[in-house]
Amino acid sequence: MPVIEAKGLTKIFGRKPQRGVRMLAEGTDREQLRREGLTAAVINATFDVQPGEIFVVMGLSGSGKSTLIRMINGLLEPTDGTLRIGGEDVTHLSAAGLREMRRTKVSMVFQHFALLPHRTVGENAAYALELRGVNRADRQRAGEEALALVGLKGWGGHLPSELSGGMRQRVGLARALAAGTDIMLMDEAFSALDPLIRKEMQDQLLELQSELGKTILFITHDLNEAMRLGERIAMMRDGRIVQVGSAEEILNEPANDYVSQFVADVDRTRVLTAGAVMERPVAVVGPKTGPKAAHRLMREHQTQALLVVSNDRRVRGVVYEEDIAEAVRAGVEALPLRTEGVAQVSPDDFLADLFQHAAATRAPLAVVNEAGALVGIIPRVTLLSALTPPSVDDPRGDGAEAALETTAGGAR
Ligand SMILES: Nc1ncnc2c1ncn2[C@@H]1O[C@H](COP(=O)(O)OP(=O)(O)OP(=O)(O)O)[C@@H](O)[C@H]1O
């Protein structure tokens, strides 16, 4: 079940906003509404956020991001559509219902930290619990735990004014964590920070999220930040969501000209990771495969290199077509395996860091997980084509090198 579910969510500012809903339904555009004194800030937003997901809403200034998040945290009542949080319809909750929702389900991290200046860092971190009436000792413990999570162990007794901007935002994050809600809304939370600190905070958020599994809705106007953080990204323009997809989908299959122009300047190789472009191996053969069978396989898949892995999916080496052809001619039984220069990369590596491997070898790159097991391969052509945006005819490049030999399973 989605944690946040929006259906046709619409917010119109101005007198008699329902009038605007009707006009939109009749096909009147946003500009005409504006001439009538109505601002359609969010129009027909439909999306869901899954448990444990980082969902990014991305758009330029004025595209409707803040209005959207303010509906989700109950500060604005939708003009139309429905909103469910944790399965509960919260579209038209009473003031008391909204307070309760904010106390128990949703916490918020703001761009300008919103810390209480005369309270200590520890008190700020535990503030949500104070509002909830939790006793001092429990508050203090929860506050300290949350500060430790964000790397501020021992800072609880200081005042916010004694902290740098990056540290203050960590307190903001700790406050949301101490609140213990499953959902965190982050509104341009890192936009006020210097680039280096900002990157550190992004890393920390990703790390915390993988540990704690929070559901995060993150708002930003920065495409690179969106692509770094978002498992899925909703692109907003003029109040409408124009595309929802992973960074890779948005880069490779932009929904319209607006999105493609938007992403045109992105350095794809610093956004796409090995994990995002890797392919599942297309060929699997048995343990005792001889050069002849391997040669056949290579021709079948039009590849000049095969990765060889063992039963536990550890990469053992590469065989090249030229070696195989030679082995077949000479009647050799064993595969002519080369073990040098076999590049193993992590799913998290950015493509930009992989080109040197592609230049050094003709073999597909082996993508191995932390345990050292093969999880996918990246054909060299994929890597090279990532340097240029895809053409319509050949969106992914030719996957022909995606052949793999493994000793797992029986011979085909
Ligand atoms: N309370 C309000 N009353 C009237 N119009 C509003 C109100 N809040 C926002 N708007 C308008 O709604 C539109 C969307 O604004 P919103 O702040 O949601 O965009 P945004 O993408 O968050 O932009 P920014 O990053 O600049 O905050 C804008 O045209 C804005 O002027």
UniProtKB/TrEMBL annotation:
Record's protein name: Glycine betaine/L-proline ABC transporter ATP-binding protein
Organism of derivation: Streptomyces chisholmiae
Bias type Low complexity, positions: 400-412
Pfam families documented for this protein: ABC_tran, CBS
Entry's Gene Ontology molecular function annotations: ATP binding
Keyword Membrane: no
Stretches for region Disordered: 388-412
Database matches in InterPro entries: AAA+_ATPase, ABC_osmolyte_uptake_ATP-bind, ABC_transporter-like_ATP-bd, ABC_transporter-like_CS, CBS_dom, CBS_dom_sf, Gly-betaine_transp_ATP-bd, P-loop_NTPase
Homology family: Belongs to the ABC transporter superfamily.
Keyword Secreted: no
UniProt keywords, alphabetically: Amino-acid transport, ATP-binding, CBS domain, Nucleotide-binding, Transport
Domain ABC transporter: 4-263
Domain CBS span(s) in chain numbering: 278-335
